Amino acid sequence: MAQKPPLPPFTLESARRKVRMAEDAWNTRDPEKVSLAYAPESIWRNRSNFIEGRDAIVRFLAQKWQRELDYRLIKELWAYHERRITVRFQYECHDTAGQWFRCYGNEQWATTETSGFYAL
């Protein structure tokens, strides 16, 4: 899998740019596009769900964005070191009844030279 620049080792500027690229991709609400930023064998944990591999990521995101309407995400760089980035995020959305929700959390990303990013 070809990784997209910026590549590790990260500097403050390149880590910020990587986070912004991820934020921009997620805000497209395009599951295929978002999934390409992650290694094919990625494992995600979302609350009590574990999502393994790109196909599962695409299915998960498609279902998520059918329920979470007008989804809008903000990601902020929290920390970085060489091949790792930690991100704080918040997003808001509403359901079909018009009830709005806001969620907060953090993510730890790691990368290898050959496989791309993993959400840890």
UniProtKB/TrEMBL annotation:
It comes from the Bacteria. Keywords: Oxidoreductase. Coiled coil: none annotated. The keyword Oxidoreductase applies. One of its GO terms (molecular function) is thioredoxin-disulfide reductase (NADPH) activity. Its EC number is 1.8.1.9. InterPro entries: DUF1348, NTF2-like_dom_sf. PANTHER family: SLL0781 PROTEIN. This is Thioredoxin reductase protein. It comes from Salinisphaera shabanensis E1L3A.
